[in-house]
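yo

u said u wanted the structure for the complex thing, so here. seqs first:
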Amino acid sequence: MVTIKDIAKAAGVSPSTVSRVISNHDRISSATSSKVKRIMEEMGYHPNIMAKSLVSKTTKTLAIMLPRPAEELFKDFFFGELLRGILTHSTIAGYDMLLTAATSPMDEKETVSRLVFGRRVDGVILLSSRVSDPLISMLDKQQFPTVLIGRTDEQAGILSVDNDNEQAAYDATKHLILQGHERIGFVSGPPNLTVSLDRMAGYRRALQEQGLELRSEWVVEGEYLQHSGYRAMTFLMNLQERPSALVVIDDAVAFGVLHGLTELGFAVPEDICIVSFNNIALSELASPPISSIDIGTYQLGYTASQMLIRRIVDQPSVHQNRVIIPHRLIVRESSLLSLPKRVK
Amino acid sequence: MVTIKDIAKAAGVSPSTVSRVISNHDRISSATSSKVKRIMEEMGYHPNIMAKSLVSKTTKTLAIMLPRPAEELFKDFFFGELLRGILTHSTIAGYDMLLTAATSPMDEKETVSRLVFGRRVDGVILLSSRVSDPLISMLDKQQFPTVLIGRTDEQAGILSVDNDNEQAAYDATKHLILQGHERIGFVSGPPNLTVSLDRMAGYRRALQEQGLELRSEWVVEGEYLQHSGYRAMTFLMNLQERPSALVVIDDAVAFGVLHGLTELGFAVPEDICIVSFNNIALSELASPPISSIDIGTYQLGYTASQMLIRRIVDQPSVHQNRVIIPHRLIVRESSLLSLPKRVK
DNA sequence: CTGAAAGCGCTTACAG
DNA sequence: CTGAAAGCGCTTACAG
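structre next:
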C-alpha cells in the first residue's frame, strides 16, 4: 500500500503538501502540483478512504435501510425500481450506497445505531414508512440526515418524499365508479404501513362521496406479495355478494389477484374489473394488461437521494422538507368493462 | 460523540482497557469488564467504525459491482433475486454491502480501484461475467478477494459461482425436440456475456446431436430486456421460414417475446412454443405460463456471499474456487404443444 | 506557497 | 490483569 508519506518522500515534499495537491488546494504552485500528481500516477497512489473519513468526519456514503428482512423484499419489483432511482442519483453525486437489511425488527434499531453512531454513513434512506416507527423518532432525535419514502406525522426534522396516496386511491376508485361500478372492493397491504392507510382513505372518500356502500368484508388486508392477492380472491369471490371491481394496493398483488380469479373461473374485466398501483413494467404485459396508478417510483428514489444529499451538503437546509411526486392513472384493459364501448 | 477516552476517564481505566473490554479480550477481570460495559451503556458509546477500520485494515463490507448503469439493471428481476440471496447471507455473517454502479464502462475500473485500493471494502462481488473483462484481470492481479457470478477462463485466483449454462440450454432445447419440434430458434442476450455464449453452445449441441438444422437467422442477439424480445419477434416472425419453437435467454425477454407474438397474431403454444431461463416469480403467472429453467438465482447469490466471506476470513483458502448451482427445467404451458396429448 | 505538529478514534505489541 | 506509547493514513490550523 502506497501512502501519502511515500509520495511525499519520492517527490521531496512534505505529506501536507501532497494532501493539499490531492484536495486541489489553491495555494499550491502548479509546478509542485503537477510533479506530485505525476508521482502519484507512477506509484499508483490511492487515498485510504477510512483514514480520510476519520479526520474529515464524512463518509460520502448513504445507508439504505431495507424494510424488514431482505427475504421478502425483492419479490416486489417496486423496490428494484426505487433502488434504481436512488442509485442513479447517488452515483452521479459521488455517494456510495450501503445496503442494510435487518434480520429482525429489534435488530433493526441496533443496525441503524451502529451505522449512524459509528459514523459509518452520512445519511439514511428509509424505504417504507410504518405508523409510529421507533427508527424514525430515533433518527429525528439525533437530527441525523434522514429521508423517508412515505410520511410521518410527528417528526418535523425528517425529510420525506411521497405520493399523494390518498388522492391516488381516490382517482383509482373514481375511475371504477365512472365505469359504472357500484360494488367496489379493496385489496390492501399491511395496515401498519402509512401507504396502506392513505390509499384506504382515498378509496373510502370516493365511495362516500358517491354514496356507495362501504362493506367491511370487501376490504382485505395482506402483504405486498402475489400470494396475498391470490388468497384474497379465494375469500372475496366466495362471498354471497361479490364486488364487481377491485382496487388493489400493488401490481405484484394484482398479479396474484389475476391468477386467483383465473383459477376460480372469473374473467377480467368481464366479471370483475381491476385497478392497481405502482405500474411496474410487467403490468402492461399481464393478460389482460392491468390498469395501474403510476406513482413515479424511479422519481421517488431519485428525489429521495437528491434531497438527502442536499441536506447533508448544506447544513442549514433552506429547502423544503417534503416533496410530493405526482401520480397518474394508466388505464388498460383490466378496468374497461366491455372493451370498445364504455358502460355509461 | 462519546469516544473510548471518555469511557476510560469515566471508568477510571486506560483507553487500552476499554478497547480490550469491547473486543472481549481474555485477560480482563470480569469486574473491570462489567463496570466498563455498564458505563458504555450509560453514556451511549458506539465504536467509530472508520477508526476501527483504519487500524484493523478490515471493513466488514463487501462491494457489489452492478453491471453497467443501474439504469437498465433492475428491469430484469433476476438481479433483485440475486441481491436478495447475497444480502441474506452477508447480513447473517455480519457484513455490510456497498452497492456501486458505474456511470460508464471506463468509469467502472476507476470505481473499483477507488474501493479496492482505498481499502473501503474487504471483497468484491461481480454480478455478471463478460468475456475478457479488464476488471476481473485487475482484481485477480491484485489477489483481491473476488467472487464472480459466472465464469472466467484465465484467472485462476478468482472465485466463481455459476450454473452449467451449456447443459441448461441443452436441456431446454432437448425438451423442445422431445415435443416434436425440428425448427428451433434462439433469442439470445449480448454476445459479450459468458452466459449468452454458454447457453448458445448448449442450444447448438442439442440441435447438432439430433441432426437438426441450425439456421443463423433463427438466432437473434439482444439485451436482457422485454423490449429486446419484442423486437426479436418482429424480425423472426416475418421470415419466410419461421421456427416452431424458441429458446429464450431470460424470462424478462420471454415476456417481450410473448407480447410480440400476441400482437402479431400468433398463439403460444399453438403456433410457437417457448422455453426460457431464470424462472422468475412472474413466469408462472404469464399467459400462458412460461416454461423456464430454474437456475437457483437466490442460491447463486447466497453462495457467492458465502464463498467470498470464507475466503476473506481464512486467507489460505483451502476451499474450492468454483461452485456450480444445479438447474432444473420447470415445464409449463408455453412449451406443451397441445396441452392434454403430447405430440410424438 | 510549504512544512512541522497535532489530532481524528481506535488497536496492539511491549512492559510490568 | 492493566497502562503508556506508538501508530493506522490522512487533514488542517498555525507559522513562516
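Confidence is low (pLDDT under 50) at residues 339-344 of chain B. Residues 1, 3-5, 15-16, 19-20, 22-23, 47-48, 50-56 of chain B lie near DNA strand C (CB under 10 Å from a C1').
cya
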